[in-house]
Amino acid sequence: MSRRWRWDGADSSAGTSMQFWFLPFILLACLVCFPLPPLFERMGTKRLLLLPLVIAAGLLIALTPRPATPGADETTNYFLNSAWGFTPSVFWAIALALVYPLLPASLRQSRWLAALGITLTAGCIYYLWTIRNSAEPLPSLPRTLAGLGWLLVALVPFRGRLVMMLAPLGKYSYGIFLVHPIFVSTLHSLFHALHIRTMGWVDIVVVTLAFPASAFLTVFLRSHRSTRWLVP
Is the pTM of this model over 0.85? Predict the structure, then answer.
């Protein structure tokens, strides 16, 4: 089984344990990070002394293979691979938390900060696109930095027409995540049955169709009392 399948796919025999690996990961990350904000506040500008250490730790994990776990089953390895691969995102978030409050208010509210975030995310996605057929198609560093870029976009208090139009989807985001494998897996199976090889345009078509279908299904389930409990 390829590494790409271990990271992106979900073995049906493992049920939902493959899709929801992030729940214990987020719990642990929150427990670790919970005491940090008051500590940073007490440190004042001296918090920047921690920045090189935080960045170095994130880079070390991102660029180092996960320690082997002999005897672990597929589900355990999937969780450990995923957790190791996305742990650098916690360090990027901590680094941003160290720097962001010290930035001038004009910069925090500037659309250039959002432009920087979009550029970072787009650059990481493009790099991942160029190595999609390599032996290591989903390295940790560009994946986690792509998330950091989108966080920079979210921090800018922009209320444009497009943002306000898409904002209501936020309350359905978790439901969309829950149901999207139905459409993604179905479309992938359809392309496979038609003997269409996985290519870039196939991924674009899958995302273009799966997202609105997932959003529609989530809204539909949430709008009826008898099915509302299915989608948080």
Answer: no
